[in-house]
User: Fold this.
Amino acid sequence: MTHRKLEPHEIEQALKQLNTETSHNWSIEDEKLSKTFKFKDFQHAFGFMTMCALCAEKQDHHPEWFNVYSTVKIQLTTHDVSGISRKDFALATQMDLLASRL
Assistant:
């Protein structure tokens, strides 16, 4: 499936839909789809990152992320289109589902 960079109005609409369907904490930061997840402890944060890594690898779409103890900050962008694509929103939805299991 070919992905293209979304236009600002498409990003706004997709963000609204994502935040309606999930946990309401995704935003656009540094021109990337961003969210900070907080977990009970490091074990849960690392478990989340491991599940996300396996999911991202299957999609050949890899997040930019930063972890300190129980916090995981994620930023998504589609590098081959130099911006946000539907691929980022699909992965964000999956990440929210994974986080809800912890």
About this structure: The chain has one domain: 28-100. The mean pLDDT is 93.
